[in-house]
Amino acid sequence: MPKDRADYASTRERPLGAWVQSVEDESPAWEAGIEPGMRIESVNGHELRDLIDWRWEADGASCQLEVFDPTDGGTYACELWRKPGEDWGIGFTDVLFDGIRTCVNACQFCFMSMLPSDARPSLSLRDDDYRLSFLQGNFVTLTNVRDEDAERIITYRLEPMNVSIHAISPEVRRTLIGPHAQRGIDVLERLLAAGIEIHAQIVLCPGVNDGSELARTLDWVEQRPSITSLAVVPLGYTRFSRRFSKSFSDDPDAARAVVKLIEPYQARARLRLGITRFQLSDEFYVAADMPVPPAEAYDGYPQYYDGIGMLRSFLDESAVVARDHAEELGATEKELARREITVLVVCGEAPRAAISFFSELWSPSGRVRAYPIHNDYFGGDVNVTGLIVSQDLLAQLPELLTNHVVVLPEVMFNFDHLTLDGDTQDHVMREIGRRGGVAAVAHGDPESILSTVTQSLG
After folding, report:
1. What is the helix, strand, coil percentage profile of the chain, to 5?
2. Is the CA virtual torsion 294, 298, 300, 304 positive or negative?
3. Buried b / exposed e across 424-435, counting CB within 10 Å, b at 16+?
4. From CA 373, how far away is CA 392, in angstroms rounded?
5. Would you say the C-alpha torsion 242, 245, 249, 253 has a positive or negative sign?
């Protein structure tokens, strides 16, 4: 089952170029004298646009580099050699060396347009870069992809690509995405014709691309086998939205209607292809008060980080941990009771039931319990753990935390250990300590939560 999270990128500005961040000792790069802070200008005479170029051009047993050394301003040539299976030993500061490609769309449901006015400026960067789709799993619309970019995707076999479709009817796409909507479909059809594997996505907006339009889009996808998975996720809106004031989380009947609409497509895919292929996000099942499907319905969780199967994965792993770590769970429960300690597992409101399921398996006495945070900062229907902010967390935690262990979800912090409202992880943990509690940060899976609590008890 998936464990590692999709990390948020760094918020620090990075200079353009293939800047070396790290060099592994005894590696070919180390032996050639390459050091952190240098910049790779070219490989075998080819300038580097991104990590894809580096992997492509430096794929052999040797490579010729031009390296810029900022300590003296000089550019030097060097040659690297490696043994079969050996890595060059170079880590870069970023995966994009020529800058990020931004979005040219005006999507009605864009979360960036629904941010509070005091949000970090970096949060409003609307990336839509096909290279990040391949390298990091970001969803892109392909509306800004040039012909030469499409050819590069095909030639380099940059797959799977993660592509947002949203709707297939031209007029609905223009309404949802803007005037460049058709370009995205044109590029997508070209990639599909070349056999590029696609993981697709639909952000479902009530009254816009649901109902009969959703059925048309599903029909279109069903006819294109290179689209190996399709995620359908509900619109999320904040209190700052000027277009939307409700979604499927507010309407159980509408959520159930979406589940029922997609079930025949899932059944046909399982019959014909042996996979479910058409996947609904966990929020639909929660909103509809319906059980999430079994693990085998998620086809190995290809769209886990789009909220597809997270609850099922967590519930199944909870049962496994309860079975395989029963002795440790029991010992920890006894130690918590002996020391009169309560564990608060911080989460968003959406996964509260799943966290409570694990907590009750672990601690029937209630020493371990879910602690959901209501999202006042964003408001609307925002209720996921990854969007918890510091000010809501600290306002809703008890002022007195003596004899409490507070388990913070790692996903609420970005690469630089910042929350979405700009606070630092260190400050959050210090504030919990000031209130008498012990703060610990854990991955979102049950085994990590258990081990984190065990370690915090010494």
Report:
1. 40, 20, 40
2. negative
3. ebeebbebbeeb
4. 7
5. negative
For residues 19 and 40, what is the distance between their CA atoms, to the nearest angstrom? 6
- Closest alpha carbon to 395 in 375, 369, 416: 375
Residues 257-290 pLDDT 10s? 999 999 999 999 999 999 999 999 999 999 999 9
The 3-state DSSP class for residue 279 equals: strand
The DSSP secondary structure of 82-126, one letter per residue, reads --TT----EEES-SBSS-PPBP----TT-GGGG--TTS-GGGG--
Query: Going by DSSP bridges, is the β-strand pair 39-43/438-442 parallel, antiparallel, or unpaired?
Result: unpaired
pTM, 2 dp: 0.87
Q: CA-to-CA distance for 242 and 110, rounded, in angstroms?
A: 11
Give the alpha-carbon dihedral of 356, 361, 365, 369, to 10 degrees. Answer: -20
Torsion sign across C-alpha atoms 377, 378, 379, 385: negative
Tokens of 329: 């769970």
- Over the range 184-211, which residues count as b (16 or more CB within 10 Å of their CB) and which as e? bbebbebbbeeebbbbbbbbbbbebbbe
Q: How far is 56 from 158, CA to CA, in rounded Å?
A: 11
CA dihedral for 182, 184, 187, 191, sign (positive or negative): negative
Q: CA 362 to CA 451: how far, in whole Å?
A: 12
| CA distance linking residue 40 with residue 94, whole number of Å | 13
Could you write out the DSSP letters of every residue in 165-207? ----SHHHHHHHH-TTHHHHHHHHHHHHHTT--EEEEEEE-TT
- Counted residue by residue, the chain has a size of 458
**Parallel/antiparallel/unpaired status of strands 62-69 and 74-81:** antiparallel
Residue among 246, 232, 361 at smallest CA distance from 285: 232
Query: Phi-psi bin for 347: left (phi > 0), alpha (psi -120 to 50), beta?
Result: beta
**Closest by CA position to 241, among listed 382, 107, 114:** 114
- Strand pairing report for 342-348 and 368-373: parallel
User: For 324-374, how does the pLDDT look when each residue is reduced to its tens digit (9 = 90+)?
Assistant: 999 999 999 999 999 999 999 999 999 999 999 999 999 999 999 999 999
DSSP string for residues in 320-379: HHHHHTHHHHHHHHHHHHHTT-EEEEEEESTTHHHHHHHHHHH-TTSSEEEEEE--TTT-
End-to-end CA distance of the chain: 28
